[in-house]
Sequence to fold (334 residues):
Amino acid sequence: MTIRESLEQREKEYLSPFASLSMASKGRLTPEEECDIRPAFQRDRDKILHCKAFRRLKDKTQVFLSPEGDHYRTRLTHTLEVSQNARTIAKALKLNEDLVEAIALGHDLGHTPFGHAGERALNRICPLGFEHSCQSVRTVDRLERGGMGLNLTYEVRDGIRNHQTIGKPHTLEGKVVRLSDKISYIHHDMDDAVRAGILKESDVPKEIRDVIGCTPSERLDHFVHDIVTNSMGKNDICMSEPVETAMRNMRKFMFASVYENPVAKSEESKAEVLVETLYTHFMRNIDVLPEEFLNLIAEGEPREQVICDYIGAMTDRFAIATYEEIYIPKSWTL
Fold:
């Protein structure tokens, strides 16, 4: 028996009857030889951790564009916080931690530069539309490894595709990540908003604070405990009605106070114009795209999609540098 097989057997003996077992995976898009050490979902976790798209997350905006300070979240730190929260919940419920971690680490790989501002811009200007959850799946299926993709399992790809509010993951592990994404950004975006002087803790409505706590750490702890308590022994991942209502109200409060706040979002219109300008430029000058993207077009991919692939993969810094190279005279930048 290989190490992988012994680990798979341990999963079968220890995990909840509702957990996803590595040995029962629906498989990959292209069959490949099993690793003798790592079960399938652990292998997927490693594939994601070592891919280029994951490394680029460190220079992509979470909420605040180019904040003054070293402690604001980026898309990478958001991803790591989602992963940690999801693993805590999965461990308590005896679900598959490797699957949860793989989904969490991969859920935002397709996010644009400049956060949701970049996503809105591409969705508006591209006739095919753009949604970061679908782009995350496209990143792991098609764009990584020079167009070969990472060849992940069905369960990881399903969790990545369905991590947004409207998503319906087919595994409990995917449902854990979907909820962890929400509670993570409620936690850290509030923390960053206080740090930026956009909000004070006392601004959170009293009816919300009375249910889930008065600080980001209290709320995060309350969310995690509530999910574990209410999901234990069930073939579902759920929250109590009062806490779920408080979470929805907290999200509404954050949208009104932070995500749509003109002070917090004062630079986003500039970012959207930059992204749309780059898209228009590459549509007119398709031949300047890097070779790996031109190869996608040669293989029959729509140029609109490939341009979204290229721009969507950019970090904030690279998008700005590309714009400056195209449109700003070099003498102006001296």
Remarks:
- The domain at 42-259 is CATH 1.10.3210.10 (Hypothetical protein af1432).
